[in-house]
Amino acid sequence: MRVLGVDPGLTRCGIGVVDGGHGRAVRFVAVDVVRTPADAELPERLLAVSDAVERWLDAHRPDTVAVERVFSQHNVRTVMGTAQASGVVALAAARRSLPVVFHTPSEVKAAVTGSGRADKKQVGAMVTRILRLTEVPRPADAADALALAICHLWRGPVSARLAQAQAQAAQLAKAHRARLAAARRKE
Amino acid sequence: MRVLGVDPGLTRCGIGVVDGGHGRAVRFVAVDVVRTPADAELPERLLAVSDAVERWLDAHRPDTVAVERVFSQHNVRTVMGTAQASGVVALAAARRSLPVVFHTPSEVKAAVTGSGRADKKQVGAMVTRILRLTEVPRPADAADALALAICHLWRGPVSARLAQAQAQAAQLAKAHRARLAAARRKE
User: Fold this and answer.
1) Which of A37, A61, A126, B21 is the one with CA 20 to 30 A from B63?
2) GO molecular function, one example (chains A, B) (predicted)?
3) Is A70 close to B88, i.e. CB distance below 8 A?
4) Which tens digits make up the pLDDT trace of A86-110?
């Protein structure tokens, strides 16, 4: 399973690709940061991010796209641009019928460092160690994109198994209710 | 000049087309509201909005796209979806090299009702009157999309003239400074 992780942004948009294997084995494939000039118009910036993501989807053909979930507790102006960038990333994936999953920054940090409150440095150090890189990916957006992909590879199966177990439980409960109702009708 | 106005949203996205003429003459062309199911996945919803906007751009060939500027003072969840929808709208326009302009809700309200604090009902009533429609466009998102297009047609030239005047003033000031500097060098 190959995951393309995206840390969305207009000034810097981190993109990283990681392959998953058996268990927790992961392999680094590629990473880069797309930059768009702050003085360019918003539509042009979104187009540049979109084009870059499309090129990466074509070049690396991931199975899933993992995107950082944007929150709005920070600077409003920045958050709006980030949300718009994440929208065009999700759109590019949807156009290719690729599943898109969103992970919160704390989920990502917890997945790679064990703590949802880890700082950028810790995330960078763990991404470097996990992927056996020779140096810390820079800027932090690059490390974050790889961390997102790792997070998805490690959390994804758990979430999927949980969803499956819940579906089975619901199915069993439904069958049980049906049997009860049938028994009542026979009485 | 033909303007396509978009009141971005995932649950309801208003799209309206208005033609401008001499002075303040405007003509209604079309209006609709794109809806996406609340239980669908975000990427699917963004794709539906994007596809609808692309169809409208192809069908009506506007000269400019006017989009409501999103603020984040409201419900965070809704605002993020709205920002993402506005991002894919801006992207669709940028892909066609169409200019995209953003107008704030209060600019739009002020343009059509004279007050930046007008309510939805007032905006609907004025849009109906300005475009000489037989009934108020419903839901409010449809009226808002038309109001955005009208706002751009009425404000656009003023903003453009203002920007031009400012550019000329800056040019004159620069030339004046250059002359002063040249005069000083000769002294």
Assistant:
1) A37
2) endonuclease activity
3) no
4) 999 999 999 999 999 999 999 999 9
